[in-house]
Amino acid sequence: xxxVEQVRVDLLTSxxxxxxxxxxxxxxxxxxxxxxxxxxxxxxxRIACCAGLTTDVxxxxxxxxxxxxxxxxxxxxxxxxxxxxxLECRVVAILSRTGVTAERLVDLTVAVxxxxxxxxxxxxxxxxxxxxxxxRDVHPDNSSVPALTRTELDVLRxxxxxxxxxxxxxxxxxxxxxxxxxxxxxxQRLELRNRSHAVAYALHNGLI
Length: 208
Known about the structure:
Layout: E1 7-12, H1 16-26, E2 32-34, E3 45-52, H2 55-64, E4 71-77, H3 80-88, E5 91-96, H4 102-115, H5 124-138, H6 150-160, H7 165-172, H8 176-189, H9 195-204
Parallel strand pairs: 1-2, 1-3, 3-4, 4-5
C-alpha cells in the first residue's frame, strides 16, 4: 500500500460533540491527522467549528493567526459583516455545520493544504459574493487607496475567478513566475497577508 502524506489538522472548537465528530471524520480516510493541542504549531490547516463567528471565536483565531495556518470555518451562520473578520482570521473556506459531510470536509481540507493561503478554486465565488455585499454597503472613500497597475488588476480579477497562477499566466500572456512575482510585490506594497486578502482588499475598495 502506498504511503499517504497526511495533512496535519488543528481542531478548534469548544463543543466536545463537534470535536468528536470531526475527529471521527478523520478516521474515514488516511489523508488527515488531527493534532493534539500541544502540537498545534505543526498544523497545515486549522478547522474551526462554531455556532457563529462571535467576538470570542474571532479573538481565538486572531491569536493563532500569526503562524500563517489557513482556516476552514464550519459554522451555523455567517453574516455579511463577519466576512472581512473571517479573512482577517485567515479563514479561506466556509462550510455549513448542518450540511458538512466527512467526504466534503476531508476533500476541502486537503485542497486548502495544497493551495496554502490561497482560496481553493471553486470555493472563492460564494465568499467573494458576500464580500461584494459588504463593499456595496460600506461605500468606501477611494481617494486614499493606492492605484494598482493593469497587470495587478488582471491578476486580482482572475484570482477572484478561481484561476491558478498557471492559468492566469496563460490568460494574460506572462510566465507563471511573473504572476507570482506580481502578486507578491503587490501584497508587500499594500501590506496585505496573502492573495485572498488582496482580493478582499480590492473588492472592499471597489478596485475590481
